[in-house]
Amino acid sequence: MATATNSVLKTYFNTGDKPTQQNFFDLLESNLNLTDGGVMGAAAVVTGLEQYVKSAAISQVVGTATDLTTLNLTQPAGTVLTDIGVVCTTATVGSANIIIRVGTADDGEQICVDKNFCSSGVVAIGQSMSVMNGTQGEGAQSLAFVAAAPYYSAASRTIHIRSQISAAVTAGTFVSYIKFMKIV
Predict the structure, then answer these.
(1) Structure confidence by residue, pLDDT tens digits, 56-86
(2) CA dihedral (61, 63, 67, 71) positive or negative
(3) Share of the chain above pLDDT 70, in %
(4) How far apart are CA 123 and CA 100, in angstroms?
(5) Which pTM value belongs to this model?
(6) CATH of region 47-183, choose from 2.60.120, 3.30.1340, 3.30.70, 2.40.160
(7) pLDDT per residue over 39-58, tens digit each?
(8) Radius of gyration of the chain (CA)
(9) What CA–CA distance (Å, rounded) separates 71 from 12?
(10) CB atoms closer than 10 angstroms to residue 85
């Protein structure tokens, strides 16, 4: 089986032609197949599809002052981060500031520095913060990538999305996610 250019492939299927099994194999091998990784050729190409990973567990934001909750998501090898976000799935109850930070270490800010998701108020169901669409939490801030942040990772790595509260919170849950593109 071999790959062929579009101009060669078109010659296999002219009116009256009877394409061979090999012609069909060439057609299949020459096209992008996202199920098999979406990779073609030796040059670096982007598959064109972004993929998401959301937290498997919901982060409970219940606790007292300085309590921390970290959700760990895995960024696959050979990918570049394109977005990170947090969505409130159960409203928070309390008067705390809730800060979100994102790093490659549990307490790190290598990817996104501290941003207020909640500033002494309540985060309602559906409120979110993210990098790319600029959604803001109740704290009127959105996440932002740090200049020169390590977006690309050749090896699989853990991304830590951490929430920290400043006072008692008696209810509230968040779901976090990362969005990435495979680079080959």
Answers:
(1) 545 666 666 666 677 888 888 888 888 888 8
(2) negative
(3) 76
(4) 13
(5) 0.66
(6) 2.60.120
(7) 433 333 334 455 666 655 45
(8) 23
(9) 52
(10) 24
7 pLDDT higher than 70: yes
- Give the residue carrying structure tokens 């050749």: 154
In Å, how far from its chain's centre is CA 133? 13
Domain ranges in the chain? 6-46, 47-183
Tokens of 1: 């089986």
The pair of structure tokens assigned to 153 is 């990772």
